[in-house]
Amino acid sequence: MSEKKHYLYLQHSESVVASMSATIFSSLIQTNPLNDDNENELIEKSVALAIKLAELSDKLVESDEEWVKDRK
Q1: What's the Cα-to-Cα distance from 62 to each of 32, 57, 58, rounded to whole Å?
Q2: What is the structure's pLDDT at 69?
Q3: Model pTM?
Q4: For the chain, which terminus, N or C, has the lower number of CB atoms within 10 Å?
Q5: Burial state string for 32-53 with b = 16 or more CB within 10 A and e = fewer than 16
Q6: What is the DSSP letter of 4?
Q7: Could you name the domain of life of the organism this protein comes from (predicted)?
Q8: d(CA 42, CA 27)
Q9: Are 32 and 38 in contact (CB under 8 A)?
Q10: Alpha-carbon torsion (28, 50, 52, 66), positive or negative
Q11: How far is CA 1 from CA 4, 5, 7, 47, 65, in A?
């Protein structure tokens, strides 16, 4: 039995969102038993929440680079 290998080349922001998604997913399955019927729904919800958090953070927080650029 051979398993297909997956190769991912994620940008930094994508890997941050993936990490956030995994954290959210692990939290969701603590209170929602995981099964074939809800797996995709919980994964999609985790990613959507991670993206929402990242977008709000980007809107509300200026990075050092953005702050310096605005000062010039």
Answers
A1: 35, 9, 7
A2: 64
A3: 0.80
A4: N
A5: eeeeeeeeeebbebbbebbeee
A6: P
A7: Bacteria
A8: 10
A9: yes
A10: positive
A11: 10, 13, 19, 31, 49
